């Protein structure tokens, strides 16, 4: 129905995308991006609110007919990554890059707002277009400003909720690009769409000494080695095999030490992911207990830290089915994957899905072999896919509102 109209926006969408890609902004500093978004939405006739959760933008499209409200969300922030692609519109901001496709998310949702604003007769109710800051967590550089603004959590979704973005929302839909999927495909999880993400930091304080006289020191390294093994055993020995969870320890160090010394302290940091809140609590509790008891056995002192991360993204199966059916309608049956296999990546939109029914799904953008993954400095996206994502957004909005209003 909207194919030709979306196709006519290809050049405009590419222009917006390339501009956003060249000017990436870290979470809660997306002022330039937010300004572009707000101006575009106003030009489409939407009721626009700026400075939501500091830099967020919300545009409401009212059909003028009574009905439910559907929320569509795009994240706006970039990553602290130096871009290593050779594209002619690469980042102009050193140390910053849209390596997760948020610039594409913004562009496609703007395109959908434009198309839908021309076709208010095609739906009843309202569509709330939410452009969210800081999906990639809260950067340390702006954490004080965020705290002063009244938010203590991680990620922009929670701040947007605190600011009232879910008021009157009946359902929400979130689309994310995925380079590991073939370009033009859509993948929707029936239930478990993205995992929770929590981070732990452990320091085992020992007593430094010379490597030739370890008996005069307290060596934290053997304690750390045993702790790593014990933590890695948790998913296989303390969590049911029917649950999905993963633990990764990504950083191990003995700060300031050298090869021929007993280190003063040994540190590690890692994270765990799951879809079950009880499993999430168990892992956090057991990691702390293991750190304390193993440290004690080796005469070390444990220093423990934790960062409570994002909630799991749990899809409403009915809305997930609607998205799959809508995508088949515009892309064809072979281009749609409706799956029970979860993704272990994380997104802060789980905060929305915990409060209103909705779904998080993937839009394939993969063309290269092998594709550069999300968060890679070599991540790249063909702007031709923007029209596909816009079309998927438009059809989703109409079909889901039609169902909600029945």
What composes the largest sheet?
Answer: 8 strands, mixed
The secondary structure category is alpha/beta
Mean pLDDT: 97
In whole angstroms, how far apart are the ends? 22 Å
Strand content: 25-35%
Classify the helix fraction into a percent range: 25-40%
In the sheet with the most strands, the strands line up as 1-2-4-3-5-16-6-15
Rg computed from alpha carbons, rounded to a whole number of angstroms: 23 Å
Instruction: Please state the overall shape, judged from the principal axes of the Cα atoms.
Output: elongated
In sequence order, what are the helices and strands, one letter per element?
A: HHHEEEHEHHEEEEEHEEEHEEHEHEH
Low-pLDDT parts are: none
Number of strands: 16
Count every helix, treating DSSP H or I runs of 4 or more residues as helices: 11
Overview of this structure, please?
The mean pLDDT is 97. The protein starts with a helix and ends with a helix. The chain is of the alpha/beta class and 406 residues long. Strand 1 (47-52) and strand 2 form a beta hairpin. The protein has eleven helices and 16 strands. The strands form four sheets. It has an eight-stranded mixed sheet, with helices on both faces. 49% of the residues are buried. It has helices spanning 3-7, 10-22, 31-43, 102-117, 143-148, 156-162, 220-237, 277-297, 317-331, 350-353, 385-404, and strands at residues 47-52, 56-62, 69-75, 126-132, 171-182, 186-189, 192-194, 197-205, 209-210, 245-253, 261-262, 265-274, 301-310, 313-314, 336-339, 358-366.
């Amino acid at each position: 129905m909207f194919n030709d109209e979306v196709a006519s926006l290809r050049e405009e969408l590419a222009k917006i995308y390339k501009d956003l890609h060249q000017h990436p902004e870290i979470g809660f500093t997306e002022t330039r991006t937010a300004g572009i978004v707000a101006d575009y939405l106003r030009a489409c006739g939407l009721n626009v609110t700026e400075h939501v959760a500091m830099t967020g933008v919300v545009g409401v499209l009212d059909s003028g007919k009574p009905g439910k409200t559907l929320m569509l969300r795009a994240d706006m922030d970039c990553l602290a990554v130096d871009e290593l692609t050779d594209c002619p519109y690469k980042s102009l901001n050193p140390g910053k890059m849209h390596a997760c496709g948020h610039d594409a998310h913004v562009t496609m949702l703007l395109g959908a707002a434009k198309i839908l604003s021309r076709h208010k007769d095609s739906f009843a109710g309202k569509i709330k277009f939410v452009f969210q800051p800081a999906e990639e967590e809260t950067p340390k550089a702006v954490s004080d400003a965020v705290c002063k603004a009244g938010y203590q959590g991680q990620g922009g979704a929670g701040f947007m909720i605190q600011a009232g973005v879910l008021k009157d929302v009946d359902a929400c839909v979130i689309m994310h690009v995925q380079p590991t999927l073939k370009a033009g495909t859509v993948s929707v999880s029936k239930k478990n769409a993205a995992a929770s993400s929590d981070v732990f930091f452990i320091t085992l304080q020992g007593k430094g000494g010379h490597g030739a006289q370890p008996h005069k020191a307290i060596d934290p390294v053997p304690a750390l080695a045993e702790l790593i093994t014990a933590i890695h055993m948790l998913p296989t020995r303390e969590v049911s095999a029917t649950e999905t969870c993963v633990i990764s320890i990504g950083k191990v160090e003995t700060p300031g030490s050298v090869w021929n010394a007993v280190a003063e302290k040994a540190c590690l940091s890692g994270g765990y992911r799951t879809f079950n809140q009880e499993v999430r609590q168990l892992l956090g509790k057991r990691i702390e207990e293991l750190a304390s008891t193993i440290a004690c056995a080796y005469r070390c002192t444990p220093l423990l830290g934790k960062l409570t991360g994002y909630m799991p993204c749990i899809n409403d199966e009915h809305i997930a089915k609607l998205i799959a059916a809508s995508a088949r309608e515009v892309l064809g049956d072979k281009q749609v994957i409706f799956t029970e296999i979860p993704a272990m990546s994380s997104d802060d939109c789980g905060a929305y899905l915990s409060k209103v029914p909705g779904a998080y799904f993937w839009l394939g953008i993969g063309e290269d072999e092998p594709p550069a993954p999300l968060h890679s400095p070599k991540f790249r996206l063909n702007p031709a896919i923007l029209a596909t994502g816009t079309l998927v957004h438009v059809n989703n909005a109409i079909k889901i509102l039609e169902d909600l209003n029945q």
